[in-house]
Amino acid sequence: MKILCMYLPQYHEIKENNLWWGKGYTEWTAVKRAKPIFKGHEQPRIPLNDNYYDLGNEDAITWKWQAELAKKYGVYGFCVYHYWFTGRQLLQKPLEVLLKHPEIQIHYSICWANESWTRTWYGNEKEILMKQDYGNENDWEKHFHYLLKFFNDERYIKIENKPVLNIYLSSEIEDLDKMLKKWNSLALKNGFNGIYIVSSNNHRKIDKREDLIDAYYNFEPGYTLKHKLNFLQALNYSANVLFRRIHNILFKKRKLVEHIIDANKLSKIMHREIEKTNKPVFKGTFVRWDNTPRVSHKGIIYKNASPDLFYQNLLKVKESLCDEKLDFVYVNAWNEWGEGCYLEPDTVNRYQYLEMIKKSIYD
User: Fold this and answer.
1) 332-354 burial, b for 16+ CB within 10 Å, e for fewer?
2) Phi, psi of 148, rounded to the nearest 5 degrees
3) Among 18, 85, 278, 281, which residue has the fewest nearby CB atoms (within 10 Å)?
4) What is the pLDDT of residue 322?
5) Above 80 in pLDDT, residue 325?
6) Looking at residues 74-81, what average pLDDT do you find?
7) What would the 3-class secondary structure string for the chain be?
8) Is the pLDDT assigned to residue 86 strictly greater than 70?
9) pLDDT tens, position by position, 213-248
10) Domain containing residue 43: CATH number
11) Is the pLDDT of residue 207 over 60?
């Protein structure tokens, strides 16, 4: 199996984040200020050797370190988030730095994270910071030509001479058919056989327009939590969340984390086969999850996550692979430190999660 790790580029300063969240804001800001909410809560998470890296550096020192680490432990490549808003971009510099350094040997693809940016992290989802607008044919052409320089990179992942473009919320693109018709036409003119579109199965609406999509990828753990629980499991989960929210209203000085899920139980559900589609589905799994550094007690914690559980999940995914064309496995994530979902070494687990990838592939 080829491990593709979701990759967050928000580790460099940009003017928009300075305006919205304060001067010098990066993902490390939330990570560093995290505090334990209950006894035994492992916060803050600290990168090994205090490696609070900056992805804005033109020398690509961090990219080189990450690529070498990935190769050492059997990670095939990164699926890097791309934020495009009708020509305006956010957090694009790390990908552009990677492109300028062809000596860095890592496979990669792009995931268009096509959500509007809001103040979700401060509990105000209605305040829009950057609205997602898909524009018209001229905008689609501009977007394609920006992506083309990455598509032409030898390291960029392609299937049947089609650059792989992952779209996080393809269901929200009303004119997806027209957009893809334009993109495929441009791809053919530039020597490709088209674009290979992979839509995300996540906690939002699943895109059912299979005629427009080449494949799906399972974005875990959100996909399982939203779509794979049976009635009683969903009821129990909702009741538990409601109880905790009522507690937090009544006892404001002693907050409970509103969403706590047993990673062991969810992992068993995660491997259920429920996909009813004629398209390929790339399996996914997750390292662990605790996004309280971003949203405090309103966050979600998956308790009992461990390197061993991660290893067992990888083995189950590997055993389920029956087609060499479906050998990509999407792992959430390489470096989502603000969500407690990362493979990079920290002071507690060091390299254990990476070791589990190597073990699952080569043993």
Assistant:
1) bbbbbbbbbbbbbbbeebebbbb
2) -55, -35
3) 278
4) 75
5) no
6) 98
7) CEEEEEECCCCCCCHHHHHHHCCCCCHHHHHHHCCCCCCCCCCCCCEHHHCCCCCCCCCCHHHHHHHHHHHHCCEEEEEEEEEEECCEEECCHHHHHHHCCCCCCCEEEEEECCCCEEEHHHCEEEEEEECCCCCCHHHHHHHHHHHHHHHCCCCECEECCEEEEEECCHHHCCCHHHHHHHHHHHHHHCCCCCCEEEEEECCCCCCCCCCCCCEEEECCCHHHHHHCCCHHHHHHHHHHHHHHHHHHHHCCCCCCCCEEEEHHHHHHHHCCCCCCCCCCEECEEECCCECHHHHHHHCEEEECCCHHHHHHHHHHHHHHCCCHHHCEEEEECCEEHHHCEECCCECCCECHHHHHHHHHHHC
8) yes
9) 999 999 999 999 999 999 999 999 999 999 999 999
10) 3.20.20.80
11) yes
Which tens digit of pLDDT belongs to each residue from 159-179?
999 999 999 999 999 999 999
Owning domain of residue 144? 2-362
Q: How many CA atoms lie within 13 A of 61 on its CB side?
A: 6
CA 55 to chain centre: 17
Whole-angstrom Cα distance, residue 164 to residue 151?
8
The answer to whether the beta carbons of residues 95 and 82 sit under 8 Å apart is yes
Q: Looking only at Cα atoms, what is the longest distance across the chain?
A: 63
Say how many domains are in the chain. Answer: 1
* Total length of the chain: 363
Give the list of residues 6+ apart from residue 319 with CB closer than 8 angstroms, or none. none
Whether the CB-CB separation of 93 and 80 falls below 8 Å is answered with no
pLDDT at 274 > cutoff 80:
no
